[in-house]
Amino acid sequence: MAELPKELRDLKVAVGHDDLTVPYAGGEKIFMAIAETFPQADIFTSMITPGWANKISDLDKASNYSKNPSLRSGTFLSHESEKDKRKIITTFMQRIPFKRKLQKVLFCLYPLAFESLDLSDYDLVISSSSRFAHGVITKPETKHVCYMHSPGRMFWESGSYFADSPNLERILAPALSYLRLWDYTAAQRVDFFIANSKNIARKIKRYYGREAVVVYPFVDLERFEPSATFEVKEKNSGGLTSSGGYFLVVTRLAPWKRVEIAIEAAKQAEVSLKVVGRGPEFKRLRTLAKGSPKIEILGGVEDEELVKLYQNCTALVMTQEEDFGITSLEAQACGRPVIAYGAGGALETVLSGKTGQFFAAQTADSLAAALKGFNPSNYNPRDCRKNAERFSKKRFQQELLEVVEEIVSIK
Q: Which domains does the chain have, with CATH numbers?
């Protein structure tokens, strides 16, 4: 981990995220990396599960950093007492019974919850936000930096978010209007924005009228790596064969991810497809795949199994317009190419013709044509891996520190 610069070492810091209740997904991994980068930082969030509290405790143990300045001299030392550990600050939502099951129903409470947090003791506040965490109110002299994963899709891009539920969008229209107004106002309170991609920087400008610098997320290069034995065609000097003979989708199974496109395209192209992920669309997608022996809806899989699925696929398929799209880098880190819808963050992570290709329209027909014409021997696993290595965790943390150090130095 990058060492804290002197200018940041003794600041009182708080790092926050929308909520710490869901499985360990992309945004949560970034939040934990930010918390690791600032080992003296307390944590704030709307609500947290015991499992997540344990993750933060484990992070404390791994960092061996004392928050007491008298116990350190610019280095990492073991905690001397409980008072030196991070404080976890939650909102009133933490006390709501059955809050985890009611989380989606309670979405209108998030703005009030974050605005009610008292962060007046902190010199630096870093919010990791895709919906609400950037809405905290800080004192004028506090620097508030927001690492924005995406402006809230639900209220800024409701047409695509509720594509399969237009009636629900109409019912929620007043609430969504309120959230857009609140979100815009909250964004004006942020001192500096960091975007996870150029794609999101453009959205921050469009929706909030604010500028943002880009610090790309990272991929776990130690976990995701090529298998020991790639199937290589001698005549193509490193080109891939189809390996396991299947295309792979790895994503949350939500309507806006458009996974049904991949299922229909696989039927048209008569190719094998495996779909990994959990979410509200699982039952519907399994029904769509029924009767197609070449299509498997696997649901969630263990970490080890996921790596093997990446390593042995013909290519990863991305049907959605991702804000950034960490799965494309996970596949490339394993030496596999990507077939992606040509929009959003994929344009920043996939090198067309070298580590993957794009399909032009977000339709089954367009994707089916790409699957039929896909030749894995055109792609070298070393090129895929090399591209993924540009997005290391060390690089992420170092760039983050450089940006924050510059921000803090501004008077």
A: 6-218+392-409 (3.40.50), 234-390 (3.40.50.2000)
